[in-house]
Amino acid sequence: MHHQSLEPCLGPLFARHILARNGESSDHALLSTDCLHNSDEFNYGVETWEAYKRGCLSDDLIEEQKKVQEANLLIFQFPLYWFSMPAIMKGWMDRVLVQGFAHEFPNCYDSGLLKNKLALFSFTTGGSKEMYAKGGINGDIRYLLWPMQHGIMHFCGVKVLEPHICFAPEYVSEEKRKEMLLAWAQRLKTLWKEEPINCSPEWYFK
Amino acid sequence: MHHQSLEPCLGPLFARHILARNGESSDHALLSTDCLHNSDEFNYGVETWEAYKRGCLSDDLIEEQKKVQEANLLIFQFPLYWFSMPAIMKGWMDRVLVQGFAHEFPNCYDSGLLKNKLALFSFTTGGSKEMYAKGGINGDIRYLLWPMQHGIMHFCGVKVLEPHICFAPEYVSEEKRKEMLLAWAQRLKTLWKEEPINCSPEWYFK
């Protein structure tokens, strides 16, 4: 199997991101061309699933999966970009949470393979709390949590704690920013006592 | 200004993604260190805004912005990954739709800088239509369109046509897949006659 044969269907950029060429660094690749399951009909989902089972994912992914496996609580800290996480973090989700590791039908949602873990999305926004209120210009902040909290975490069986949101730190006073940090430090002290949210459409869209 | 001075606060990986070092290829960088607006206090939003105004964004971004500028209709075609677009496409949004080009407060939403353009999200899913129904396990497919259609496109002033969704092409018959392609070809013929959706929370969450 030669990696070149995949380029016409995947496009060279995409192929470079998914596949490490023999002898090349696999820094940004998902799996090595040495160990494709079916090189005649490339199926991204099947290939990552198979690669996971055979320990053929690239080293950085195996490393990240170990961290997830050992963790009881995953905290994702990021600046909100375009009503979502920045692409680099979405890439982590896309690459790390592969079938076999995080889910394997019918083991998804409440029986997802990462059940018994907790997650918390902690992020900063550009817009104010008023802009992210239900009648605000951006709509209720909960609307945009659905893909991240339900579509990713809940799908993998992970229970989700209330998000931690710092609204518009760039536009508030230094004093207010210090209060934000203190509030976060305070919350972390009793985080283990918190109950997960009720992950249902009602929580998000009521 | 030396790029190294930014690495402690940004982290080396992040710095590498944002800044092209002098003399290095700017393939994956957002702007060049040659032309930072304020290198003492790096602010991502401000730097990209300033770089846009001074024509200092990296060449590939300027190229993409030209394509957007010339287009009347933007069609985003992708496989749905984790209730959203794949990271590589989210990266396009994060990098291309910078302040000054796509929005510039208060020019956002209906007065966004890309007003008079249309967009359409056309994507394939893994799950079936039933799984993405309102009472289905994944919830109404419209829930996950909010960040992409409202948070990105509408924010930039772009009006959005009904999404084009091919449910689970991987799991249907070859005949059904051909029907899907035909339906898309058919829709494209009269796309210009379509009215945009009413981009309000009611459309998404009713």
UniProtKB/TrEMBL annotation, chains A, B:
Q: Does the keyword Metal-binding apply?
A: no
The organism's superkingdom is given as Eukaryota
Q: Which residues form a coiled coil?
A: none
- UniProt xrefs under Gene3D superfamilies: 3.40.50.360
Domain Flavodoxin-like fold, first and last residues per copy: 37-188
Q: GO cellular component terms?
A: cytosol
This protein's record includes keyword Transmembrane: no
Q: Name one Pfam family in it.
A: Flavodoxin_2
Task: Give the UniProt keywords, A-Z.
Answer: Oxidoreductase
**Which family does the record claim for this protein?**
Belongs to the NAD(P)H dehydrogenase (quinone) family.
Cross-referenced PANTHER family: NAD P H OXIDOREDUCTASE-RELATED, RIBOSYLDIHYDRONICOTINAMIDE DEHYDROGENASE [QUINONE]
Listed name of the protein: N-ribosyldihydronicotinamide:quinone reductase 2
Question: What's the source species for this entry?
Answer: Cairina moschata
